[in-house]
Design goal:
This protein is of the alpha+beta class. It folds into 3 domains: about 5-110, Orthogonal Bundle (Helix Hairpins); about 125-175, SH3 type barrels (Roll), CATH 2.30.30.60; about 185-265, Alpha-Beta Plaits, CATH 3.30.70. The chain has helices at about 1-10, 25-55, 60-85, 95-110, 110-125, 165-170, 200-210, 245-265; strands at about 15-20, 20-25, 135, 140-145, 150-155, 160-165, 175, 185-190, 220-230, 235-240, 290, 295. Strands 6-5-4-3-7 form a 5-stranded antiparallel sheet. Strands 8-10-9 form a 3-stranded antiparallel sheet, with helices on one face. Strand 11 and strand 12 form a beta hairpin. It is elongated.
Length: about 300
């Protein structure tokens, strides 16, 4: 037992290096790492508490509160780190020796990290996007779940997560459907065959919209007779809905289409489909043969 304790003490006090006359032992490094780990956990909890107090007590909006919480975490963690190094008598001059090499390495290697970090703070303060917003990024729709220090996490409509660097939102065009509110305009297109009563068709389309509870009454829906198409008389129904998910909007569109189909069927109005009329010019009658069961008839 005594030999084991002696071996432990020898290992614990084994000098790894000497800086400014101060020996850096194995024990010094172990204690410093433990204190840094504890400081990280404490800093995380304290910063979250600060963010919660700002939102609940001071009524600060979640975006600025999140930015302050992030800054508080890094300030507290640095403070805990410096305190931990002083507690174990770790000479801070060691960092000045490594400072030149670290500065060069960080200057080249951390440009993107710092860019995304600063961009994240700007996003939290200016709030062009917020958690819960419905956005479109490079053709993909999704809901912002979290704006982190380096990247933003978006939940796509197919339940997959997209990790987007924060700088992307400041350097590219991003569509935010819910920046000011959750009211979205959408449309349903329908075509009826030529010869159909257009006024009656427009009335039935409006009835389908009026009967749907998901369609907003203000702004009022618009029914437009848009075009004499190749195969149909084309109508466009423009209306507004409240939605924070793409699926919510598509459900309402689907319900409107179902109702339009029911009303048109009841009124005898036929929804058009692509078709072609073929006209053949010939100087003599066209010979037609019907082949059935191996025999030919003219």
């Amino acid at each position: 037992m005594e030999s084991a304790w002696a071996l432990f003490r020898e290992t614990w006090t084994y000098p790894l290096t000497v800086i400014d006359g101060q020996a850096i032992t194995v024990g010094t490094v172990v204690v410093a790492v433990i204190l840094l780990f504890v400081g990280h956990r404490v800093s995380r909890q304290l910063s979250r508490a600060i963010g919660g107090v700002l939102v609940r007590r001071f009524r600060i909006e979640t975006g600025p509160a999140a930015a302050i919480q992030t800054l508080a975490f890094y300030v507290l963690f640095v403070a805990f780190g410096v305190t931990a190094l002083r507690v174990v008598h770790f000479p801070l001059t060691a960092f000045t020796i490594l400072g030149g090499a670290l500065a060069i390495g960080l200057g080249f290697g951390s440009q993107n990290i710092m860019n995304n970090f600063i961009s994240g703070l700007i996003l939290m303060l200016e709030r062009p996007i917020r958690p819960g917003d419905l956005v479109q990024v490079e053709g993909t729709h999704g809901v912002v779940e979290e704006i982190g220090a380096r990247s933003t996490r978006i939940l796509a409509s197919n339940n997959t997560h997209i990790i987007v660097p924060n700088s992307f939102f400041l350097e590219n065009n991003v569509v935010n459907f819910t920046l000011s509110d959750d009211v979205l305009r959408t449309q349903v297109n329908v075509g009826v065959v030529y010869g159909s009563p257009t006024r009656e068709a427009a009335r039935l389309i409006r009835q389908a919209l009026d009967e749907n509870e998901g369609v907003l009454r203000s702004p009022a829906p618009e029914i437009l007779f848009t075009e004499f198409g190749d195969n149909a008389l084309l109508f466009e129904a423009l209306f507004w809905v409240r939605a924070r998910r793409i699926l919510q909007r598509r459900r309402i569109e689907s319900e409107v289409r179902f109702r339009i189909d029911d009303l048109f069927r009841a009124a005898g109005i036929v929804i058009a489909f692509p078709q072609r009329d073929v006209h053949v010019d010939s100087v003599k009658p066209i010979e037609v043969r019907v082949v059935s069961g191996g025999s030919q008839e003219r």
